[in-house]
Design a protein that fits this description.
The chain is mainly β. Helix content is 3%, strand content 26%. It is built from 1 helix and 8 strands. Strands 1, 3, 4, 6, 7 and 8 form a 6-stranded mixed sheet that branches.
């Protein structure tokens, strides 16, 4: 046999065809405006379909003109249990310090139907002081000498 299925062999054959895409993931109000320099974590509420995976899309500038580029996802596909991703404002979105960009999330079901995109998440790249750039403060108090007990109080 060459793998052909006939009703004579099996009686009847049911073929399930799933053409219904999953719902859009929900983005919490607190997660719609994020900022950071090297990494921002975008989180969402999972859709109710079985074992959905997710894609993350660049949406361009924040605001009314935000529109996802569905041809080139930032994150091609997550595992089914992933509910957040780390986005680099500079590497993933190409943002300079002070610029903002948006991302959208879409669910993908077991039949590879891509659902509607979420509401946009606006990400603003901000400058963050590095370890060596942290300003130091000077105290105007006189220094205390360590006591023999090690408490830092005079004996």
């Amino acid at each position: 046999e060459r793998g052909e299925v006939t009703t004579e062999q099996y009686g009847s054959v049911a073929i399930l065809f799933d053409s219904k895409p999953p719902l859009a993931p929900a983005i919490g109000v607190d997660d719609q405006m994020l900022s950071g320099d090297s990494q921002v974590t975008v989180s969402w509420t999972p859709v109710t379909d079985e074992s959905p995976r997710y894609r993350v899309f660049d949406g361009g500038p924040c605001g009314e003109g935000a529109s996802p580029d569905l041809t080139d996802p930032i994150v091609v596909e997550t595992d089914a249990n992933i509910r957040s991703v780390a986005i680099s404002p500079s590497d993933d979105l190409g943002l300079a310090v002070g610029e903002s960009g948006s991302v959208f999330i879409a669910a993908i079901d077991r039949a590879n139907n891509v659902g509607a995109v979420s509401d946009p998440v606006c990400i603003t790249r901000v400058a963050v002081a590095g370890f060596c750039d942290t300003p130091s403060a000077r105290s105007t108090r006189p220094r205390r000498s360590a006591s023999p007990s090690g408490s830092g109080r005079p004996a």
